[in-house]
Write a structure and sequence with these properties.
Blueprint (H helix, E strand, L loop, with lengths): L15 E3 L11 E4 L6 H9 L1 E4 L13 H11 L3 E4 L15 E4 L9 H6 L4 E2 L6 H16 L2 H9 L10 H4 L9 E5 L3 H12 L3 E5 L10 H7 L2 E4 L13 H6 L4 E5 L8 H9 L3 E6 L19 E3 L8 H19 L15
Parallel strand pairs: 2-3, 2-4, 4-5, 5-6, 7-8, 7-9, 9-10, 10-11, 11-12
Antiparallel strand pairs: 1-3
Length: 349
Amino acid sequence: MTSTQPDASDEPAAPSERQPPTGQARDRPRALVTAPLRSPALERLGQLVDLVLDPWIDHEPLRIYDGEALARRAREIGATILVVEADYCQGPVFDLPLIAVASTRGDPKNVDVVAATRAGVPVLFTPGRNADAVAEMTIALLLAATRHVVVADREVRAGQIYRDGTIPYQRMRSFEIAGRTAGLVGLGAVGRATSWRMRGLGLNVQAYDPYQDDAESSLEELLSTSDIISMHAPLTDATRGMIGPEQFTTMKDGAIYLNTARAELHDGEALVKALSSGKLASAALDHFPGENLAPDDPLASFQNVVLTPHIGGATYDTETRQTSMVTMDLERLLSGERPLHCMNPEVLQ
């Protein structure tokens, strides 16, 4: 998701609304939904609250509200519940009489949780809603990086199947992944979803995660013994840059590096050096700092690097799961029960 924010004076696009006729009294809360929702759970949500549906992802050009624009839009329609994914819930948003904010993210960094807590507003979130999607993307990138899929496709389209008098069988040979060892850095929802998929492909899987008892490897041991390193750790002050020059040096010669989490987990210059020296056989990345990679970036020059633009979680199934999770927790909250996924449960006392 882009971090671009519009000017607060931007006029919002007309939403698709499910709401009572003008002037009709409402005895239910009204929810402004700027996250993409789908599935039968959306119908259930519409039975609980009046919905104003205006997903950010349907706007061209892209529209992401900052705090002032989101607060203004919510005030215009009388919303007391916000369901967001990319928009920023901050500042004047928490001057509104809100019942709840729901962020359809595993880590709701777009919400000022401290301000929400101060205002007594529960912040709901959706942990693991994209775990299967990102795990599938990890497997896709692994196979693309090991079997030269992107390069082969490019050469076919360019009429270069027999480039330089060679045949593809000469240029595209690779090792199979079955029987090799994959090391997962992070064993949360995505790491676990990736683990069983890798085991199903015949890989031996080990993991490093200081917060999971069944992750039994140290980071150094994992890096030095794994043929494939796959990053699934959250980005925190402790994990930022955790894979640097020393860690790349520790890796096996010819290792494969995958990162479908956050680019900031590794040192970019150290990664380029590891690729340039041949230390790494290949790499595949689904995220870049600032959500963008310049065409002249050194990473773009490597034929053995697969690059995708942060699309690991971009599935309709992710939207279905987050809809179910938000609906369930809002239903619990509105009925006086405790939501299952609340970032600031202290406000529920």
